[in-house]
Amino acid sequence: xxxxxxxxxxxxxxxxxxxxxxxxxxxxxxxxxxxxxxxxxxxxxxxxxxxxxxxxxxxxxxxxxxxxxxxxxxxxxxxxxxxxxxxxxxxxxxxxxxxxxxxxxxxxxxxxxxxxxxxxxxxxxxxxxxxxxxxx
Length: 136
Hints:
Helix content: over 70%
Number of helices: 4
Order of helices and strands: HHHH
Strand content: under 5%
Distance between the termini: 28 Å
Number of strands: 0
């Protein structure tokens, strides 16, 4: 007899038929765990690449902000007119961009670290199976 979702009703199955299906169920579980590990590795690799990109962009902007700080200091000390104000605005804009890019990278790191990895899922599954086996 089938349930509405398509699963068989196993109440009337004998113990031997259930034990006979155990290898297939174990194989399906192992295959599902391997697929979960592959998916986790792909997502984590993608997120790590994005983190690297955001930090490289932040360092690129910071690289060009440092000469602007030098230009601000030189122009500001040599003349107290508009050129130092322009350099100050450039430095401020560069630092704002660096902070935004770094925060985007940190947000991706937090997203990546909150994801459940397959090793912990596998250990949880093993603990559940052990608890069920200890009951019998």
